[in-house]
Amino acid sequence: MKKTYHLCLSAGDEVLFRDEEDYNRGFNCFALALYKTGSTGLVESFQSTHSHKMIQTEDHLEFMYTMRQSYSKYFNHKYQRHGRVGEKLHFHMEVVGLHHHLAAMTYVLRNALHHGVVPIPYAYPHCSVNAIFQKEMGKRPPERLLAERHFYRFIGRKAEWPSNYRMNENGVFLRESVLDIVQVENMYATPRAFNYYMSRKSGEEWEKEQEKDRLETGPVRLEAIEYGIRDQPLEKMLIYESGRSDYRKISDIDLCTEIDRNIVPRYGKVSVYHLSRTEKQQIAEFLYRQYHIGEAQIRRCLAI
């Protein structure tokens, strides 16, 4: 029997996605793993340092193995690296009860907000927030779609997918064709309620609301959803939740793009993973002087 899980995979000391193509491929691997394992996707969010997903599956270990194997093969081939992509073990939490579902889904959809990447959840493109109540909230899917004969360019020649999956011209499956959006919308009930959840503050009110489920498990909290994520302390996430962040700062994807496209070629290397430690240190010093960014961001984007 299927159970609902919140799953989170952390990148460890590097990043999971270095450019737009990586984010798209990451979601495509997620979509194909759902189909291959007979699982159902609810919501997801892909960040440079980690990825969240809520799925209904009979075996979350099989699902994560399938998704990770596919993405690791792609990532290692592209960047000429070897080994596992991401930490050895993924975090998992079973979700039971309507209010537990609502809390967990909301935290996943607002993940970019909590990490100071965007001022509101709807501004983040690499999650399913804009696929929910799409029509009612005045959002439209892209009109230009790829014909199925072109899908292989973005998912590999051996991939299999269901007939309802659609792909846009950027080579990423449409979230509304992959996820069980109807089930998610039924839990939120109305577009107005959904919009409220996307903007409400964390706190005791959420925890008391979850007591209505009368379950033995404790309430879903932000610290539980973000368990094991290293890049932001809980206190800062709550500050970001209020929309207080410098959104003009350079993001991981922008920094990785600068490194991969403009800096690594100067050293005659095929990717950042082929740089020597001395070369990485030289680049780190340059990036610090150029952008005045923190050591942690530089280290993970250089895979030090």
Outline the structure in words.
By secondary structure, this protein is α+β, with helices and mostly antiparallel strands. The protein folds into two domains: 239 residues, Transposase IS200-like (Alpha-Beta Plaits); 51 residues, no CATH class. Helix content is 44%, strand content 9%. The chain contains 14 helices and four strands. The protein has a four-stranded antiparallel sheet with strand order 2-3-1-4, sandwiched between helices. A hairpin with a 3-residue loop joins strand 2 and strand 3. Helix 1 packs antiparallel against helix 2 and helix 13 packs across helix 14. The longest helix has 20 residues. The chain is globular. The mean pLDDT is 91.
Strand content: 5-15%
Fill in the CATH topology of the largest domain: Alpha-Beta Plaits
Mean pLDDT across the residues is 91
Helical residue percent band: 40-55%
End-to-end CA span = 42 Å
Order of helices and strands: EHEEHEHHHHHHHHHHHH
* Biggest beta-sheet profile: 4 strands, antiparallel
CATH homologous superfamily title of the largest domain: Transposase IS200-like
How many strands appear in the DSSP assignment?
4
Domains (count): 2
CATH class division of the largest domain: Alpha Beta
- Name of the CATH architecture of the largest domain: 2-Layer Sandwich
C-alpha Rg (nearest Å) = 19 Å
The coarse silhouette is globular
Number of helical segments?
14
Indicate the structural class: alpha+beta
Strand order of the largest sheet: 2-3-1-4
pLDDT below 50 for ≥5 consecutive residues: which ranges?
Answer: none
